């Protein structure tokens, strides 16, 4: 899962297996060491309203389960929510890169619509 912070938004991009795991288990998380701490990015399925919270060193995003299941099974690219605090929360399918960076690969990404 890739997490991107940009201009008042937080965007999660998930590969095919990550989307499956999210729908099957109700959650998907990534973590990275930052000094002596571990930063966790967690995406969970929840009730009717999306939310975003910082819980210690965990960034927790919750999206409606009904939206996630529909999105996982159709051709739509992503989900976009405007949260009450003004932050946009986006959850998207991760498409294959046209020119992967060194060390990156396109395994398990979604086919780009122009490549279909």
Written description of the protein model:
The radius of gyration is 14 Å and the shape is globular. Strands 1-2-8-7 form a four-stranded mixed sheet. The protein has a four-stranded mixed sheet with strand order 3-4-6-5. The protein has helices at 16-25, 65-73, and strands at residues 2-6, 9-14, 27-34, 37-46, 51-55, 58-64, 78-82, 88-93. The protein has a single domain (2-97), classed as 2-Layer Sandwich (Gyrase A, domain 2). The chain is of the alpha/beta class.
Short structural description:
This protein is α/β, with parallel strands linked by helices and 116 residues long.
Structural class of the helices, strands and pairings?
Answer: alpha/beta
The span between the termini is: 23 Å
Helical fraction? 10-25%
Count of folded domains: 1
Overall morphology: globular
CATH topology: Gyrase A, domain 2
Q: Could you tell me the number of beta strands?
A: 8
* SS summary, helix count: 2
CATH architecture field: 2-Layer Sandwich
Low-confidence parts = none
Rg to the nearest angstrom?
14 Å
Looking at this protein, list some descriptive labels.
four-stranded mixed beta sheet; Gyrase A, domain 2; 116 residues; alpha/beta; 45% strand; 2 helices
Helix-strand blueprint:
Blueprint: E1 2-6, E2 9-14, H1 16-25, E3 27-34, E4 37-46, E5 51-55, E6 58-64, H2 65-73, E7 78-82, E8 88-93
Parallel strand pairs: 2-8, 4-6
Antiparallel strand pairs: 1-2, 3-4, 5-6, 7-8
Helix pairs in contact: 1-2
């Amino acid at each position: 899962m890739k997490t991107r912070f940009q201009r008042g938004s937080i965007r999660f991009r998930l590969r095919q297996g990550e989307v499956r795991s999210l729908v099957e288990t109700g959650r998907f998380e990534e973590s990275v060491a930052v000094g002596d701490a571990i930063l966790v990015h967690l995406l969970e399925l929840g009730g009717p309203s999306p939310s975003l919270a910082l819980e210690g060193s965990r960034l927790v995003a919750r999206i409606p389960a009904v939206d996630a299941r529909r999105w996982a099974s159709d051709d739509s690219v992503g989900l976009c929510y405007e949260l009450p605090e003004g932050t946009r929360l986006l959850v998207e399918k991760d498409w294959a890169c046209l020119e992967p960076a060194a060390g990156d690969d396109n395994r398990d990404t979604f086919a780009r619509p122009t490549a279909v």
